[in-house]
Amino acid sequence: MKIIVILIGKFIVFVGKIFKRGTSLPGKVALMLDKNIINKLTLPEDIIIVTGSNGKTSTTEMIASTLRSAGKKAIYNEAGSNQIEGVTTVLLKYCNLKGVVKADALVLESDERYTRNTTKYIKPKYMIVTNLYRDQMTRNGHPEVIYDIIKEAIDENVHLILNTDDPLSSLYGYKRDNVTYVGIEKNDLSKIKSDSVYLDTKYCPNCKSLMKYDYYHFNHIGSYECPNCGHKRHNPEFKVSNIDFKTGVITINDKYTIKMNLNSIYNAYNLLFTFAICSLMGISEEEVRSSLDNYIIKNDRVQSFKINNNDVMLLTSKHENSISYNQSLTFIKNQNKECAVVILVDAISRKYFTSETSWLWDIDFELLNSKNVKKVIVAGTYKNDILIRLKYASISEDKIYVSSDLDDMMDNVKNNDYKNVYVVTCFSDRMKFLDRR
Amino acid sequence: MKVNILHLYHDIMNLYGEYGNISILKKHLTDQGASVKVDTLSINDKIDFSKYNLIYIGEGTERSEMACLDHLINYKEELNDYIENYGFMLLTGNSYEMLGASIDGKEAVNTFSFTTNFIKSRNVSDVIYESEFVKDDLVGFINNMSNVEGNIYPLAKVKFGLGENISNKSDGIKYKNVYGTHLIGPFLVKNPSFLKYFIKELLSSIDSEFVYKDIVYKEEEDSYKITLSELNKRKDSQ
Prior knowledge:
The structure holds 2 protein chains of 2 kinds.
Chain A: H1 2-18, H2 25-33, E1 46-51, H3 56-69, E2 74-76, H4 84-94, E3 105-109, H5 115-121, E4 126-129, H6 137-140, H7 143-151, E5 159-163, E6 179-184, E7 212-218, E8 221-225, E9 238-244, E10 249-252, E11 256-259, H8 265-280, H9 285-292, E12 302-307, E13 310-316, H10 322-335, E14 339-344, E15 373-379, H11 383-392, E16 400-402, H12 406-415, E17 420-425, H13 427-434
Parallel strand pairs in A: 1-3, 1-4, 2-3, 4-5, 5-6, 6-9, 13-17, 14-15, 14-17, 15-16
Antiparallel strand pairs in A: 7-8, 9-10, 10-11, 12-13
Chain B: E1 2-8, H1 19-31, E2 35-41, E3 54-57, H2 62-72, H3 76-84, E4 88-92, E5 102-103, E6 106-107, E7 115-130, E8 138-149, E9 156-160, E10 170-171, E11 173-175, E12 178-181, H4 187-190, H5 192-206, H6 218-236
Parallel strand pairs in B: 1-2, 1-3, 3-4, 4-12, 5-7
Antiparallel strand pairs in B: 5-6, 7-8, 7-9, 9-10, 11-12
């Protein structure tokens, strides 16, 4: 029976390739035929699960790439197939007819809501939790809900790699031994006072006492200690000891310098996690460093092109995820180029319907008050909601252009010489811009 | 005319951008000629309810709600006096649950006899509600993990989506000048008619001569119309 399921799975993978679709379908069918199919396969010893709110896809890709350049055969699931069906597809694709998965390492990006399903069948050696942020709360619930759900996927044997700067996800390491912490040390952009519109761990996630912070990198990410229960930022074993945002170079453990292709602190965390796990797996630190130096992420979240005289950069951000938006807005501010910014919110999700827009109030739109931003173009079904939020963020009215419809948005970009245009929108909406070029 | 607002638990019951309610209130009240002062207090502070014309609380996680209840329960009598003496309260998201008899078995402020229990699943839904005191329907979203039982002072009837528990077709609290709803986030931004009604009620209670100045806030009206039409499309397609 096993061999039949494997053959059927492989056949659908093959057909899917021809039609360029269906990353989770083969796994779905195989699981329908035999829900224990994964238990019948022989998996590699080195299994790494990457979960958390932001940075999963990039981190997974960079880990696999680094392992490969060190001569290991690493396989991973591609973006969008991060639930059990997608994971099964990868396994079927790479196993032989005896069910032996031909790889040295299996790197799995795992949807934070479904990690507990994956770990029912797959026992990872390492688990990375990148961070826990407010993310698609209509679908996921709030970060404490996600915290509880991921916790069900963590057994006592798995070696955790945690972000010591995040008070919520680092709580998995509270009174636990097999943990490696990573973190970014205080740097030029660290703030003594929080300047974001909300602070999720102002009160300790463990006991709800007022948390003591030394500094903040952004939102609730920083250095903290709870005077009541003792939950605190541990000294990281792998640390970004220096970030030079001018040159986009980070230094890990005072020694290894990596040039960031995407110059942001968010990306620095992805690189740091990759550095840590690959080092723990025995790859030499110098080898990891050179593999990550100037690494260009293959996913297409950032796209650059020209529209008439304007250099346009589309920064795919996630609706319902204020940190993702802040990441884009901070990038625009730090680039410091004279520019216009398009904010497009038309369909809030591509997977489900909602009119929920409260997340717009969690975004630090105040960043658009930056002098280099000359115009803000708002567009899409929820343009009025954006406009209201921008006004309360004290963006001057003459700086805002409200497009009457999506064509008018594009006409505005085409007919004006802004020099640079940044488009901040989501997977669900970006084709509405790209198709009108 | 002075209006003193207390944004209570501003830094912990703030899961959905609730400060937007305070921002818009401040702007609209100022436009009506009031001089507005907003205080923010939280779980380690002392509260003097008598200083305020309006108390606002937003939604938090279940653990945060319980931490706030631990604090608010110390002010049970003062808060009930404030309410019985027609003090204004606006409570969005799960915060009005603290005024019931209990939450998950834990004693609550007991202004009302309803009880709240946490559930394993989430009540999540886009909603349209209708109320008796505002002609326009209320729009918004609920996202909570609790069921309210035995509420005899509902604010609104459910026209589309879920209410304060899975079987009940109503939601919220309207008692004297207490207004509560499970609708999350900047509820006042999303519902211009309710905002106008609420401001009239609040300012008339401070100054009986108060006359509302009609001011057009176009994008707020447009936002409401679009949201209502999107929700109605959704409702009709089901």
